[in-house]
Amino acid sequence: METKFGGDDPQSRKKLMAMVAVDESDWSFYALSWALDHLFINAPRTVETGERQEGDLWKVTVVHVTEPFHHFLYPAGPGGGTYYGTTSVVESVKKTQEETAAAILSRALQICKHKKVKAETLTMTGDPKDMICQATEQRHVDLLVVGSRGLGMVKRALLGSVSDYCAHHAACLVVIVKPPRGSAPTK
Asked: What does the pLDDT read at residue 31?
């Protein structure tokens, strides 16, 4: 059964919002490439630039979530106490996080450019699981695409899985893109 969104007239079609979550892992970029290849498989191209016209059916947002930096430490062992990082350390870490997020999103936009698809980016700070689900709800996303690191059941249970959490809590359809067969997880 084929679903049509608003009929054959391009002007009456509903624009669908896709969101792809990326982090520093190769699997998230594999998921981004997969999404671009499969969402835009039949998208027409403009004559001038050859870019795919995503305006007719899909709009793509690439989201990256940075974990919040806690500027205090709880040392292990006897004595206890809380230690706070100096202002310069806190600023240095925040700057590094911003640079890392910018590099990740830049790499994602390069993949989009290579596939001739326009995309917007979104950076958020917080727990990735919660923030991605929150973003799908706030932005009325129709499809969320996330990569899977290929963790086994035990590791997934102990470490938690962003993709697994999103599959159960996102307010939209979720596609989890698994790594290619024979690939070893990197992160």
From this structure: 95
